[in-house]
Specification:
The chain is α/β, with parallel strands linked by helices and about 375 residues long. It folds into three domains: about 110 residues, Translation factors (Elongation Factor Tu (Ef-tu), domain 3), CATH 2.40.30.10; about 100 residues, NADPH-cytochrome p450 Reductase, Chain A, domain 3, CATH 1.20.990.10; about 160 residues, Rossmann fold. The protein is about 40% helix and about 20% strand. A hairpin with a 7-residue loop joins strand 4 and strand 5. The protein starts with a helix and ends with a strand.
Length: about 375
Amino acid sequence: MHAQASVAALPYSRANPFPARLLINRRLSGPESAKDTRHFELDLTGWGLNFEVGDSLAVYPTNDPGLVEEIIHALGATGDEQVPRPRGAPTPLRDALLRDYSITQPTPKFLRAIAHRANAAPLLGDLLAPERKQDLGTYLWGMEVIDFLIEHPSARFTPEEFVGLLTKLQPRLYSVASSLKAYPDQVHFIVDVVRYESHGRVRKGVASSFLAERADDVPVPVFPSVAKHFHLPEEADVPIIMVGPGTGVAPFRAYLQERRATGAKGKNWLFFGSQHQKCDFAYGEEFETFKKEGLLTRLDCAWSRDQPEKIYVQHRMNDNGAEIWKWLDGEGAHFFVCGDAKRMAKDVDATLRKIVQEQGGKSVDQANEYVEKLKSDKRYKRDVY
């Protein structure tokens, strides 16, 4: 009784995340797809916490054990040396590299130390000059800490010095792809597993490969991260337009589950995009079912590689400009975008402004003003990364 009481008294927090259990690790993309897109289901039984659709969960990964051993070897260490941790008591080097430190991206501090200590790294020293930032970025593409340790054996570090050049291993945020009203003790994620080759080595995303390859028999520590700016409208009858290509579809699967569970009457329109309909239509069957049920009012898909010219979600928006304007201006719809910030979200934003201008008969300035008002009224919401 006493032991249980003390366990129950441990509230979960960012510093003490909940140890979830991985239930399902399923590949969503077909074998012929260029991507390895996966659906993960985690068991949250007994966590006593909460999230809303639109929120994210922070996943606290551990590093690849194979890579950890290579780094220990390159340092000429045993792995048992005691080293400081970002917080808490010192720990053996092996554990620190597995759990505490980021061991893939080289930090500026690490690069300066290599340039300073290695016999043959003058090029690196030059590239670290502030005005060479872009050149440095090009040089570093696909390079990791391990490459510098192997390439510059003359740069020697004690284990303690080495970890002093690293940053803390940060959790990764994933949008929740499920509603607690539909799956009370679970959370679902959709994740592209990052894996590519450069300089003759296979590189892996820390968190995506942790979930895909190493989480079957270890806990997956998670803690919710609230995204107040990205919640469903409070009024159940307000229409929503959702633009979520690729893994950006995660929150919208959760929205649809939530609206179905609460019997919300608002119309729902989803724009989804990926490379090929045949092998990249994540949750395609579910969305088709939602459409048959009348929950999903409209589903417009853009397949970029299924025809000679590239078709993206913003092209599908353009095709439906009059209808989008009707939903927005006539029916007070909320407009949501989730996914890649660099290109997709920019293109979608430009297309939205063009639709408002053309369909609303507005000047460029008036259209921009209209869109800015949508933002300040919390009717245009973005979760982009």
